[in-house]
Specification:
The mean pLDDT is 84. The chain is mostly helical. The protein starts with a helix and ends with a helix.
Length: 62
């Protein structure tokens, strides 16, 4: 449950940054952390589809 809260909180921060017109590097940093947190969550859940999706996203982040 903690992982879900962390991911939701991160999404809220990203939305706030977007509303504020934050600089791209700030938003990208939050997105990278979102992918990291989602990957950790998928690993804990041991859901193969979630893990695959998270790893695919991680591979797309610079």
């Amino acid at each position: 449950m903690e992982e879900a809260r962390a991911v939701l909180a991160r999404l809220e921060r990203i939305e706030a940054l977007d509303r504020e017109g934050a600089a791209v590097p700030s938003v990208l940093a939050e997105l990278r952390e979102l992918v990291r947190e989602a990957t950790e969550w998928a690993e804990r859940e041991r859901d193969p589809r979630a893990r695959e999706a998270a790893l695919e996203l991680a591979g797309r982040c610079p």
